[in-house]
Amino acid sequence: MALTAFLRNVRVLQILAQILFVLLLALAAGFLYANVTTNLGRQGLTVGYDFITNPASFDIGESYIPYEPSDSYGRALLVGLVNTLVLSVLGIIFTTVVGIIAGIARLSSNWLISKLAAAYVGVIRNTPLIIQLMFWYFGIVLQLPPVREAVALPGSIFLTQRGVYLPKFDPTPTVESWRVFIWIALVSIALIWFLFRLIQNRPGQLIPLWAYLAYIVVPVLILWIGFVIQPEPPLKENLPVLTGLNFRGGLRSTPEFTALLFGLVVYTGAFIAEIVRAGIQAVSGGQVEAALSLGLTRPQALRLIIFPQALRIIIPPLTSQYLNLAKNSSLAIAIGYPDLFSIAGTVINQTGATIEVIVIMMLSYLSMSLFTSLLMNIYNSRMRLVER
Amino acid sequence: MSEIDQTQDIIISRDVHKWFDSFHVLKGINLAVKKGEVIVIFGPSGSGKSTFIRCINRLEEHQKGQIIVDGVELTNDIRNIEAIRSEVGMVFQQFNLFPHLTVLQNIMLAPTWVRRVSKDQARETAMQLLKRVGIPEQANKYPGQLSGGQQQRVAIARALAMQPKIMLFDEPTSALDPEMIKEVLDVMIQLAKSGMTMLVVTHEMGFARAVANQMFFFDEGQIVESGTPDEIFKNPKEDRTKLFLSQILSH
Amino acid sequence: MTAVEMPPLRHSVSPLAWLRKNLFSTWYNVLLTILALGLLYALLHPALHWARTEARWGVIAANLTLFMVGQYPRDQLWRVWLSIFLLGALLGLSWGIWKNAARGFALIALGAGLAFALIGLLLNSNVWINWLLAVALLIGFYALGRILPIGRRFLVTLSWLLYFPLVILLIAGSRFIPFLSPVSSNAWGGLLLTLMITIIGNVASLPLGIFLALGRRSKLPIVRYFSIGYIELIRGVPLVTVLFMVSLLVPLFLPLDVRPPDAVIRAIIGFILFEAAYQAENVRGGLQAVPRGQYEAAQALGLSGPLTMAWIILPQALRVVIPAIFNSFISLFKDTSLVAIIGLFDVLRVGRSVLAQSEWLGTHREVFLFAFFIYWGFNMAFTYGSRRMEEAMGVGRR
Lengths: 388, 251, 398
Prior knowledge:
The structure holds three protein chains of three kinds. Chain B has helices spanning 49-56, 78-87, 103-114, 119-133, 148-160, 178-193, 205-211, 229-234, 239-249, and strands spanning 9-20, 23-34, 38-42, 64-69, 72-73, 88-91, 166-170, 197-201, 214-219, 222-227. Chain B is of the alpha/beta class. Chain B contains nine helices and ten strands. Chain C contains 16 helices and no strands. Chain C has helices spanning 15-22, 27-52, 58-62, 64-69, 77-98, 100-122, 127-147, 153-172, 190-216, 221-236, 239-253, 263-289, 292-300, 305-335, 347-355, 364-393.
């Protein structure tokens, strides 16, 4: 009697259900594990991470950290990760700019501009990314003229089929002493920010727009003082110069990287444009009316009422677009840019350590996603409207 | 407080306490309802009155004390919970009709699936109930096509279809436009006169005066005062009761 | 004296006024307009010139079947046509019955069918007969749908639900059916492959997604954490890695005596597992949109958990979720282009192999544009159809 009553208890049933669930999972996992070890055993492989320290013996096309084929597999994977991160971070910065511009263009009063922006969004969002990447790579970057007939852009930028050459900045002997001035300039920016906050927190005080110029004027002033004291600048230009068959100096953005960057920026930009447009339109017209009837000018209304509210609406979907860009970087394999995914594939081919490498790769992508989500969630919760 | 008599009392609440996290919402509720009685519970918002009647059919769980419905104690035992729920019907403030089913289907659903009544039998009973609440012609319409008052009457019919011994009403007219309150109250008065045991949370004092056997004034999680409608309206004993009554009876 | 009713002032906009308002209203708008026009001309003029004169569109015509169905056995193509005919009939029937809701899709199909018939005629291929037949079926069944009594409507819904498994059976074949010899999924290619993956992936991922969404809201902590873990894991990694992982790991996970499924099946499994996590989030949104009162009313009536879910909650949740599901369909369609990376013969891969033919060297622009238009055209058509359907159904209202 007591047993049946026990089994009818709602709490007990819940616990039993969970135990059953865990048992089923454990059974499934055990079954899979047994199969895996048998199958691997047949091929003479074992599960383990020893291969990580073995020499990779394959070359990697481009890398931001030093790498030799004699370096370990672990190093090779790290190179892939850094490549992915560089591409993702640059991509996120540029695509935000492109997306915001396109989103605002969509709302422009100029019919042609808004229709063009709409066409951009409509075409880009509805075609697969991989086709667009192929277009950028085969259709544009590789169609650039050979090195000797490079297209020259102002500012020593050269477009060739071997890549895009940009000026680089090398540190000079005076860079150490310049550091002090740069630090002072940065600190001054922070101080100005604090000052503005203090003033704004006092009721009725609004920082006039021209005062924001201080952010630029004050640091520049400090740097100018430094310049007077120390004429030699901390960084020296390193311009790409055509010597013989190739460019010397400067920074080279490989065709693969260039195509990938443009492709990702343009693709994600279309999605961000829609998000920005929707965010601005979502702030109801009533808000503008209320602001105007309170006596605020239109620019003030935009700055104090529309923009903060639009930002709140925009941030969450914007975050997922950033994540999408980072994940889409894995399509680099279709073009030949050595990102994390493509290097992981090579390592698996060479070592047969399928599961181990897959785990490393997934964990890396997961960490990137979780980190980005975390940052945006913190920003989001600070911006959330307090509701009843 | 009357003597608690297990044989006649259909609802018994003994020292019932409930907490929402750290908020103590019910602070020791003691009451007893006899079969066939109509009880009106009233009080300011946040006083715990809705929470209390939702404890009776386990939509909320009480943490301390006892609730005994028709001799069955309300515990974590599934059989007890199901037994009690099949004897207690509930009408909600927001009606909660199922929008994707017709009126008739709304009423037929529970008897067909829970009591395993045949479709034809269920349909017949449903039509009878619709006649009883006065809207048989709406049988094949969807809830969205009905007015608030009509929807609430369907909700009452739906609850009655399970032939409950007790009917709980959680502010049944609070979400209605004024001109529709009367039609719902009329149905409820009819129901009371037919001998149904009813626990009603409401501000409609006219209804209380007409059919209530006992009234309980809830404030801050406790029963401040109780008595017959005559006693409460003519001679409220506590100051809080007097204050509240003056607030709601003035307009 | 009574008020005089005057007709409204007609405010006709002359073309010049329109230009002034929309294109040249301010000085920077003038600048932008001129820049934009210049840019458009610079890009479009050479492109159109190329398309009309230098482009060799023959590459598409000659390889059209390859693009459409890959290596599917040519003598079994009647099964593909049968699927198209059935689709035409069903669309026509739906249009007749549900008028506005299905009209978007039906009109698109009608237009597409006629256009393809025309193209077939121009290319001197016999397929124009088939396309006209499909269009005829659509119109014929439309008429049938108009006369069908209301009570039979749910039969049409049933037919739609059966259509997808039927198509899978038709295309894949089975050992047990005399006319439908099994066609290995390795032979599926081109647009056929893309569509099969999209359909199967979308259809199969929805039930799994529903389970995950329910699991995520479960009161049992272990079930909830498992669901959350799965969803966050899948959403945190790129699709290619999931496809890659499934491709490599499925053979490892199967016991020795079971033959590992071929590459297409593995890819489909990968898509199902991937999509399910996103469908779960869609369904979760739908579940959250159902008011708490619905759960409580069902509980108060004594309905058990599963019953409540099946009859009360899910029907309401899924209505809200339909636009999101259509969006998933469209993104899945685009995502199938990734199978080129794992070696399957979708439209892109077919394109690359066509480019390798000596006869058509250097036609990559034509091939690329063709692939581009297939994806873009299908997406636009589907978006239009689903938008019309949502409007007619009043999703969000009721």
